[in-house]
Amino acid sequence: MRFLCWCSAVVVLASCGGGQRTAVHDPFAYKTSAPLAVADNGVYATSRWATIRDISFSGVDGSRVSAYVVVPRSAGRHPAVLFLHGSGGDRRDLIFEAVLLARRGAVTMTISQPNDVATFRPLVVNARRALDVLDARSDVDAKRIGVVGFSLGAQTSAILVGDDRRPRAAGIIGGRGTDVARYWIGRSRADLFFQAGTRDAVVPHAQLVALERAAPDHPRVRWYDAGHVVNAAIRRDQLAWQAAELGLR
Asked: DSSP string covering the chain, please?
């Protein structure tokens, strides 16, 4: 993935001295009034405790974003969690994790992100639009929003929680500590849980550590005897943490 200089320029501008406050342009701003144009394509799968619906909505610059929404059958307003896949993936990658968390009582969503982008902007704006879709649902408690990202999705999540105040809990799994991700996660007010494998052959150990150390306060960090994966232990710990953070059973 190639990153254009304007996206990293946020980091440079933010560190400028001279005694003057520099107004930093938000490269992930978007027109919040633009219609979401949600299309419900019907039921993808169902069980006695949840239903997976196949939907799409309007993303960055009017593009269409495909998504799955997993809706618990229990009545009332629920916490919501957005799952963001890694490079080369799509909305199917983290659907198992989304279903397991929905079984605990959350409305969950997985989205398909583009895999040929030059900057983080399309990824972050699509994620913010996904939060808009969740916010607009009558069965979602907008004060209890979480996000979970793996690999490139972890970098996107790191930026998202620094740019958007809605998520109160963010799971960062196998995230690379790029300049952009480190800058934005340093602005986060969300509770953070970092997970990574000690045998990760995709993201260097130093990069994993760099992203964790850029986070404010004292985030939760756990290492696993694993590679660049979401294994059973990582899945179990992340979903239990999200459930506790968002007040699920």
From this structure: ----HHHHHHHHHHT--TT-PPPPP-TT---TTS----EEEEEEEE-SSEEEEEEEEE-GGG-EEEEEEEEESS-S-EEEEEEE--TT--TTTTHHHHHHHHHTT-EEEEEPPPSS-SSSHHHHHHHHHHHHHHHT-TTEEEEEEEEEEETHHHHHHHHHHHH-S-EEEEEEES----HHHHHHHTT--SEEEEEEETT-SSS-HHHHHHHHHHSSS--EEEEES--SS--HHHHHHHHHHHHHHTT--
